[in-house]
Design brief:
Order of helices and strands: HHHHH
Number of strands: 0
Radius of gyration: 18 Å
Largest sheet: none
Strand content: under 5%
Structural class: mainly alpha
Helix content: over 70%
Low-confidence stretches: none
Oligomer: single chain
Amino acid sequence: MSSVVVVLLLLAGLSEAVGRILPLVARRPGMSRTFVAGLLLPGGLVEGAVFALWPLTAWTLAELVLSTPSEAGLVWTPSLVAPLVLSAVLAFPLLGPLLHLLLLVGAGAGLAGPLATATGLGWWGAAGCVAVAGAGLGAAVEAVRRLVVRISAAGAPEAMA
């Protein structure tokens, strides 16, 4: 993976994390900047890692579908990751979650073409692998998020009235 792709994936991850954390900050105006930064940095790295794993997961699913695995791999290129960065920038809830979802679908469709070419699957089969991989990774991250919130809420001391 080139350094440009790594920077774009980290930017997309950080932007996605900002879009998820800003509503939390808006509901709790007394949060310190260091606490918010402490949430943003790991959140951005996790989101960036999930974005980086998307083509690898789709490739693995395509290999499971194929009877004869191919030897080439699927990797992010700057032209493939640019729509993903745009969709992450638009992750802010006030700018429209539906537009964000449509851009993610567009980024996935852009990823389906190279996957179909690399594996020999049809475009629809490759798009299915990309969609299942994206949905699976998204569900896994959401489950971890909910677990972290539940653990954080259980460990927080209650205020005495």
